[in-house]
Design a protein that fits this description.
39% of the residues lie in helices and 19% in strands. By secondary structure, it is α+β, with helices and mostly antiparallel strands. Strands 1-2-4-3 form a four-stranded antiparallel sheet, covered by helices on one side. A hairpin with a 2-residue loop joins strand 3 (72-76) and strand 4 (79-84). Helix 2 (50-67) runs antiparallel to helix 3. It is globular. 27% of the residues are buried.
Length: 112
Amino acid sequence: MVFLSRKKCIPCDYRTIPLPMDKINQYLKQLDGWILSNNIIEKEYLFSDYVTGLNFAYDLGKIAEAEGHHPEIIISWKKIRVILTTYIINALSENDFVLASKFDENYLNTSK
């Protein structure tokens, strides 16, 4: 099994097939703390101060840009909320889980 964080996002278009629920559940088991709601997955990351969270959000933006798959990032005091979905198909694709895994890996490295 290839870890999700080692995969690369693949460009999607309107022909991209949404992930079936069994695959979504399989991928969710590989992630920590992500919540499924309708056609999105989301998570809140907590920080000891505002600037650390802000720097983390910037790191997520760089990861997203490198992968060509862009989340919604909401910056609040001491927390960052991330929402992932594949907008072009209004559903979840493997890219959402790849990015979530990369974000979690970055968080573990940031919080050390």
